[in-house]
Amino acid sequence: MTVQSIRCLTKLTYALAVSTILLMGCAGALGGLVKMYPGSERPASEVSVIKCGFSLVILAVDSSRTSHAKPNFCEYALLPGKHSFRVRIEKQGVGFSWVQKGDQVVEYDLKAGKSYGLHAFEDKKSPGLWTISITDPVTDKIVPLKQVNLQ
Questions:
Q1: Angle CA 69–72–77, to nearest 5
Q2: Burial, 135: exposed, middle or buried (Cβ in 10 Å; 0-12, 13-18, 19+)?
Q3: CB count, 10 Å around CB of 121?
Q4: Residue (of 146, 76, 141, 133) closest to 105 by Cα position
Q5: Helix (H, G, I), strand (E, B), or coil: what is residue 55?
C-alpha cells in the first residue's frame, strides 16, 4: 500500500465518521416528538400526535410556529380537538428540490391517543394540482382536506 493510498483511506474514514455524527445529530433533532401544548407532559393516551408526511412541512400549529423540519421528519404532540395547520408543499427528487411559494392552512379535529400524518400528493394526470390529506387512524382512511393548483 502506498503513502498516497493510505492518506486517501484516512481522509475517507474521517469523512465517513463526520458524516455519521452529523446524520445522528440531525435524526435526533428532527425525529423527536415536540410538545405543542401548555403545562406538564401528558401520557400518550391523552394527547394527539401530528406528523409531517410525504411532500409536506408543518410551519405552524394553531398560532404557534414550529421548528422547521423536512417532510417525514417532524412529530408534534397536541391536546385533542380541532387544530389549524399552516403547511408548505415541498417536492424532492433525484437531483432537484422544489418548495411552494407561500403556504396553505388546513384544519382537522384530532382524537386523544391517536397519531395522524399530513401529506401532499401531486395528481399524476394533472401536474401542478396537489391534494393535502390527513391519514386518520380513527376512520382508517386518507381524508382529503384541500386541493391546491400550483401552476
A1: 70
A2: middle
A3: 17
A4: 146
A5: coil
Q: Are residues 42 and 23 in the same domain?
A: no
Q: How many domains does the chain have?
A: 2
The pLDDT value given to residue 69: 67
Mean pLDDT of the chain: 80
Q: Give every residue of the chain whose pLDDT is below 50, as ranges.
A: 3, 5-31
Location of C-alpha cell 394533472: 126
Q: Residue 148: count other Cβ atoms within 10 Å of its Cβ.
A: 16
Residue 40 CA to residue 82 CA, distance in Å, equals 21
Q: Residue 18 sits in which domain range?
A: 1-31
Predicted model pTM: 0.74
**147 beta partners:** 131
d(CA 99, CA 128): 12
Question: Looking at the structure, do residues 74 and 129 belong to the same domain, yes or no?
Answer: yes
Residue 26 sits in the same domain as residue 48: no
Residue type, 45: S
**Gap between the Cα atoms of 131 and 129, Å rounded:** 7
CA–CA gap between residue 44 and residue 115 (Å, rounded): 10
